[in-house]
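Hi U.,

Before I forget, here's the chain from the pilot set. I'm dumping it here mostly so it's searchable later in email.
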Amino acid sequence: MALSRSGHAEHSNESDQWGGSRPVSPIAFTSQCYSYTGGTCTSTMCQSFQMSQCNMGRCVCPGGCAGADGRCYSGGNMLVASGFTLKNVKWPNYRMYFKRVSAWNQMGTSSMPSFSFLGSDRFDLYRIPGLFKGRALYFLASHKWPEYVLAVRGTLGTAFSPFGTYTVKLKDQSTPWKPEDIMLRVCTMAGYGKPNEIRIGSAGAVKTIWSYVHSGDWDVWGSISSPGTGGKWHADPPIPAGTLSPC
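Structure:
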């Protein structure tokens, strides 16, 4: 059930939305709820369709959460799966993990025993309300450090690949991330007879950049073309059937 700017309920076929010009409500920067829509209001007002408010030059959802479509929703992000690991399909002995927990550290993979990771190899997946260019988007968060999520970004030409998969701290409120820069596309290979395999990529404003591992380097990079089995991941335990869109 959506809310109009007058505060009256409107019917909607999406999740509940929240908006208007109500003055005081908390602003969230978590994997369960991210309040920044990505819009700015330094020279223009926030767009009316977002139902957001101007706060320090940014369009935010006070008391609500930003959706993949840039609108405000009253409901938070939906937990799809919790505490799972991600093993690379091409190199099944290697699992993805958070190497260090600070902004812009690249994700890595390792074949070390599970106990040695101390939980840094476990993930939570949150479905974000709304759609971005017709697709569902997600936060892929650390199960151990839930304020950190994955983002696929450019490496500025300083590495083997022009893109990499990095750690982002959501609570960096001084310069909050635009949603399309930190929300991910996660899809299932079930339609190809591989129900436990998934692909992870950027939101895809122009084209999806897929997270992958290449030979000779165990960091997680990004590829604008299909990276083959190095860009596919096996979730354990599996992501519940029917919760992800097909690749």
